[in-house]
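## retry 2 of 3
previous attempt timed out at serialization; input unchanged, resubmitting
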Amino acid sequence: MSERTTAAMSLKEMLLNNKIVSSFSLILSIVGFAGIPDDLANLYTFAAYAEPYINNGWVRLAFILIPLSAISYCILMEHRDARVRSGPDTFRSTSLPLQKKQNTSFDYDKHILDIEFLTAEEGKKNLTDKQRFEQSGGVVVTGQLERRHPVQVFVYGSLLCPPNMQRTIGRNPNIIEYVPATLKGYRLEWKRASPSKTLVNSNFEREPEDISWSGLVAVKDETKTISGAIVEVSSEELERLKSREKTYAPQRIPINQFEYSKSSGINADAIFAFFDEIEPQSIDDHARSPSSAIRTGHLKGLKASINALGLPDTLPDTKQISLRDAFDPDQALLYRWLSNENSLPTLERDLHNNLLKYTNIDGLEYFIPTAVRPLLISKTLFEHSKTVAENALKVSLKALKLALDRPEFTAWMDTAEEDLELAKILFRNEPCLLPEVCRFDMVVTGGNVRILELNSDSPGGAFHLDFLSQIQGEHCKQFEIDQLGNSHYKLCDDMIAAFRSAWVRYSKKTGRSSIRGIAIVDWNPKDWNTYPEMKHFQSEFQREFETPCFVCDPRELMYDQAENVIRHAASGTPIDLIHKRILVQDFLRDETKPSWTWFVEAVKNEAACIVNNWAGRLAGNKAIFAILKNPDFETWLRERGETLSQGERDVIQTHIPDTQFWNTSSEGIYERVMANPQKYVLKSAKGYGGQEVFFGHQRGAKAKFEQFYNGYYIVQERLPHGRVKIPLLDGGKVIWKYMNYVMDAYVIDGKCTALEAKVSHSVPVGMRVVDGKPAGFRTAVFSTR
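## retry succeeded, writing output
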């Protein structure tokens, strides 16, 4: 029994024992306080403490008015629940983090733009460097620090620009306090960094991939100083800095090597600073390479920040290094939007109104949490992400087939024995059994794509992404944001084509020539916010295949083993094509286990064409990545007569993070992880939706790592998530907050056809609902021309 229910029951008992309010007791019992919201239940719990004072007239009145209010509230809630369906992934509020209401004025938060855009020609005019610094979220501390944190860090280079610091440490509100400081005994030099696929030029065209973008490093030099700032951070923010600066070693520098204002209140013995691990004598050679370049906007932003801090410019000269007007296209897109104050409100209104058109089904409203603004990435990164996803799927299937033949691996997959046996049968019948629809979760870090996991069971969201991309793309054209290389996905069309291809393969194999009926199968389908998508596919299937189509629970189907036919129980219609949307975890519920039993037999006997296929979905088991990252993986493949393409090899070496079984089979893993748990993530092998995921830097994580050692878990290198500014409405004012995001790459029949983003305040980024509110929001990802 919940605390809310307990409090309500206690209150009812108190009321029954009090003559003053006994007349309301029966009504209260009928209405049932267990259904009232937390704040009202808490109010009643508080009122219960007033029992000794019940003879007070005002208290008597309160006990009369409060039940009446509660009854009215419950009646309203019951009326609304008749209209709004709130399934496991929905919430009872607007589907957008930014909601346009009538007569709402949009007062944009000033801490929006990157300082380099405020120094550009198209940026704001007549601003001092200090104003630019402040408008990008920085505060120059001349007295006492207002917000104190336990760790002090000296920052120089890109972290002097407030938006870069905000993106890295994830602090909201978007304000960073900088204490101007000088570090003695060091000088700055340019070094060659790795190439980046994320940048475009002023025409939104891709920058050459062979360019190495130079960054700053500190080199010991007793005769020099470095201008920078001291920033106070929390322990968790320090870990985020360490994650960002992977090629830089954090060091504690004695406080006497710094010059800064003592009135700030900083009195630490030492200050953290990050220094590059590259050999000092080779730094100059790296920077002067013909392929090295510096972004002009980055350099201007650095100079503006240093000037705003009131410090001398100690940046090295750039005479022998190329300067290029390159930038992150998403920041430029953000600037273009904000140059027209009507742009985002108009997009929000259009999205909200149009979402209502397709989310009203059978008198119910379904909401999919949606971020207003899309993300824009370079065409280079866009195409690269698609290629990585396609190769990752191929190599994951090779690892799955290997695992099915090795009991030591299948044991750690924590999958039902009949499930594994079924997969083996299907792979023997069709060795290249790709899941028709799957989705990779990715992050962009260090200018490259890294893969977090694969969902190859029953990913949904295609219809929503098609719709969302159309509205967002049309909006961009309306406001002359014409740098998009793509502006409208057609994932549903791609999926229909995949279903037809699956049927053609099945038909050739079984001899069945026509489809007599189709079923879209999910557990209690009306309870999911993707129900409108199911209804869309129902009408599309009926149009495309000219046959009846049912959206149903597996308990609404039956298997006639004698005739080897699955039927819709109510109508008796034979079902030849099944769109399997139900997750295996739902299939194994007590209520649906009988359906699971006959369904397994039907799959073995090829009673119907099932999409997504039953075998390929196992490629999404987290243990597959641990197999791929084993140094002997390619040797094992060769023993089976299989090889890797160069693209598949690149996926393993570059794009999949270090992943190992969290058990004794991984030599030395326990000691290495427990010594630095903040560098790792623990994941259940068969978990999904961000469940059973534990980040090592979070409180209590070490105990979880201990608890699940030798369980069905993998341990994975923790990757920094991307950060993007998302508009939120707060009291009529648009507040921009940095949120974490992952990219989702949809792969249909082996081809990646669309990219989506999920954004969230927390990690892991997912579409869970917490306390009735969405933890994440979906939006489209577009590429530049």
